[in-house]
Amino acid sequence: MELIKKELDVEANVNKLRTVISFIDKQLEAVSCPMRAQFQIELSVEEIFVNIASYAYSPGTGMAQIKTIISADPPEAEITFIDRGMRYDPLAKDDPDVTLPASQRKVGGLGIFLTKKNMDSVSYEYRDECNILVLKKQLVRQ
């Protein structure tokens, strides 16, 4: 199996998170993704999708498109989130100072910080009135 390409169009609603995770997991399991990498991807997918569902169309709702490319050589997952909600670059904010006690940190930003730590790359662009966020992760055993 050299390449798996799939797309999912789903309402940007936190109640659809299980559908999104299941969509991702099926593809990762098809290539025998290592459990650690799968957990890191799931955590990151949850963070990004919940942010889209919670903020992109607030107070209304809209759609999110999730595109995946899973390759065997090199073993890598690329997951792209696309929405037509408010323009927002989650990578533009500074990372939280995790050396501070939780009570002294500003609220927000920790999920994106963890996503950047768990993925090999995270990129954002705004194109054709769409927010496009791309996660990439090598699927190698550690």
What can you tell me about this protein's structure?
This protein is an alpha+beta fold. The chain contains three helices and five strands; from the N terminus they run E-H-H-E-E-H-E-E. It has a single domain, classed as Heat Shock Protein 90, CATH 3.30.565.10. It has a five-stranded antiparallel beta sheet with strand order 1-2-3-5-4. A hairpin with a 2-residue loop joins strand 2 and strand 3. The longest helix has 22 residues.
How do you describe this structure in short?
The chain has helices at 17-30, 35-56, 110-118, and strands at 3-11, 63-72, 75-83, 121-127, 130-138.
Q: How would you describe this structure in keywords?
A:
Heat Shock Protein 90; 5 strands; 142 residues; alpha+beta; five-stranded antiparallel sheet; globular; single chain; 3 helices
List the helices and strands and how they pair.
Elements: E1 3-11, H1 17-30, H2 35-56, E2 63-72, E3 75-83, H3 110-118, E4 121-127, E5 130-138
Antiparallel strand pairs: 1-2, 2-3, 3-5, 4-5
Helix pairs in contact: 1-2, 2-3
